[in-house]
Write a structure and sequence with these properties.
This protein is an alpha/beta fold and 261 residues long. The protein folds into two domains: 201 residues, 2-enoyl-CoA Hydratase, Chain A, domain 1 (Alpha-Beta Complex), CATH 3.90.226.10; 45 residues, no CATH class. It contains ten helices and ten strands. Strands 1-2-3-4-5-7-10 form a seven-stranded mixed sheet, sandwiched between helices. Strand 3, helix 1 and strand 4 form a beta-alpha-beta unit. Helix 1 packs parallel to helix 2, helix 4 packs across helix 5 and helix 8 packs antiparallel against helix 9. The longest helix has 20 residues. The radius of gyration is 19 Å and the shape is globular. The two termini are 26 Å apart.
Amino acid sequence: MEFNRVSLDIEEGVATLTFNDPEVLNAIGPAMLSGIHDALRYIQSPKNHVRCLLITGAGRGFCSGANLAGDGSNDESSVGSSLRSGYHPLLLSLRDLDIPIVTAVNGAAAGVGMSFALIGDIVCASKKGFFLQAFANIGLVPDGGSTFMLPRLIGWSRAVELSLLAERLPAEKALEWGLINRVYDDNESLMSGAEEIARKLGAGPKSLGMIRKMYWDTWHNAYEQQLDLEARMQESAGATKDSAEGRAAFLEKRQPNFKGA
């Protein structure tokens, strides 16, 4: 299924969204941004029965950031407006998805492309992958939520270092820092591994979406608020058909057959 510079394939409940403008290493311009929005709306529709989202890039790169040659980013008066009207709603929609997200970083994840990579609940990369806060190299500041996520994921000093020095962070170092979850030898094994993870999550219970919401909320909740959220979410999870199936499978000593309901 093709959208504007984005492809979408759905198989066994897993939607694979591929940034598809390899000539510019999948840099995001207005056309691709529109395509991602359209693909995400398709994924969010209950009738399409998507239970896990896998995001990757075509060709040699995951996403090299904003397409400076074609999105008006050279006009400084338009940058904030473009972020608020285009990128922010998309990133918030990804944050609020009620299904797990896996990202497979097959090359450069630079600028806002790094933000899209890190939005994954499970972030995978090949040894060819790297992460780059490229903004300072062109006289800009980090965006796409970078200054929120990075200090929480890897600590203050490393986050500031990445943003000020604008140096590449290789996948293996990103794994060592705890920024990502898995590293694979090459792009072929990356996709095989990421797809395996996505299929496992896609076959999981409805509570997986609740789990990811709880972890996002913990970044702004006090301890007491998080305890209350856990209680409320546990009540919701316990009322699902998947919870009933999980309990029955446990008692019957068999593998559960979750339906995402």
